[in-house]
Amino acid sequence: MTRIVEPEAGPRSKRAAILSAAVDCFGEAGFEATKWSTVAERVGIGQTALYHYFESKTHCLLTIMRLELERSHDRFVEATKDVEDPVEALRAAVRAAYDVSPHEVLQMRILQNHMDLLSGTRRSKREEAERVAARQLVQVVERDWTNLLVKGMSQGAFPLRDAQLLGGSVLGLIVSVWRWYRPSGPTPLSEISELIEGACVRMVAS
Amino acid sequence: MTRIVEPEAGPRSKRAAILSAAVDCFGEAGFEATKWSTVAERVGIGQTALYHYFESKTHCLLTIMRLELERSHDRFVEATKDVEDPVEALRAAVRAAYDVSPHEVLQMRILQNHMDLLSGTRRSKREEAERVAARQLVQVVERDWTNLLVKGMSQGAFPLRDAQLLGGSVLGLIVSVWRWYRPSGPTPLSEISELIEGACVRMVAS
DNA sequence: AACTGAATTGAACTTAACTCAGGTTGATCT
DNA sequence: AGATCAACCTGAGTTAAGTTCAATTCAGTT
């Protein structure tokens, strides 16, 4: 459990700008489809300067994924922290999951599209560190959801079922949206949020 | 709607062997992580021979995805064709979705992990043909599920809801399993199948 | 002004996908 | 059997994109 220390930003560091540009590129065109050099162009630096901040294109991707996972976890905790009623907590958690900016939508998309990266180990040190951190955060987020279900089951608000499996399924249902959702598409996020909220409650509580 | 004609197998064609080896490699190590030349080795031919059968590594991937989508659709139709009761049809469809061989698990995993490829257009003719065919099949499969729901709603077996959105969600829930399921893992597929079957019924019918 | 470390760069290197020009194999026909 | 033709295969070379490296600039400090 080695925590990753965010490199403190020197005053003229372009790290944040690179991450932001990378999210835009990777999220819209896809990771493989975007040239690493294009990200550099957008930020306004030469491609080699990227390596001052990230060990590789993949290292940047893994960093984006970890940050998004941290964000998801934080939001979950924030949204459910003082809601006692299990059903209401579940509803709040789902709503929080869809209460996101367009930029965050891209981050979720990137995360979902590259989950498979978290399986195999990486060659380089820093990449592997990010991978392991992200993998752990996936488990943390899964635990967030299963704990919510366990609590509800023990209180008698939810029927008893395999909380681990059901929690993972609820999470899978919620994030599956990010594979197809587009802010420009026909379905507003609010509508999706409501439908999924209802679906989750029925899945878990009936 | 131009259908793809499967190249008829000459007696010494290695196409099937290549597809099979590619499914193993792409499914276990991941598409990006496996070298195209490794697939050639497994089949027992030089790397350049691959290009006799596929225009590119990606063309092979897209073909695998299309074939898997065709299989999924066929299984759905087969499983539901003479079940009138909507709830039973839904149950049958879910069970069929998880009634798969280990090789098919890999194909599902590959499909899920590279759905994003179907968004952007491809440079070369044959790749683009496969992509378009796959994209269409995604819609066909989505329609399979929404139709099932529409039928159930009109018969009064399911409460009225946005069938398109709900159908997509059910499908999303079902396929989300392939991102983490491993035949060697602790949870048998039968158990997953049962839990998801129940969850889907509750989502849709209550 | 000299010093320091962060930030940046152009040129060279590496790897893996891909192309090409030609060679081999084997089924089929006369 | 021998000729033929298409399917099948290969070694050598090309290309594109990620990456490395040695050298340079820049901003703030002593």
Automatic annotation (TrEMBL), chains A, B:
Keywords: DNA-binding, Transcription, Transcription regulation. Residues 12-72 form the HTH tetR-type domain. Residues 35-54 bind DNA. PROSITE patterns: HTH_TETR_2. InterPro entries: Homeodomain-like_sf (IPR009057), HTH-type_TetR-like_transc_reg (IPR050109), HTH_TetR (IPR001647), KstR2_TetR_C (IPR041490), Tet_transcr_reg_TetR-rel_C_sf (IPR036271). GO terms for molecular function: DNA-binding transcription factor activity; transcription cis-regulatory region binding. This is HTH-type transcriptional repressor KstR2. It comes from Streptomyces spiralis. The lineage of its organism: Bacteria, Bacillati, Actinomycetota, Actinomycetes, Kitasatosporales.
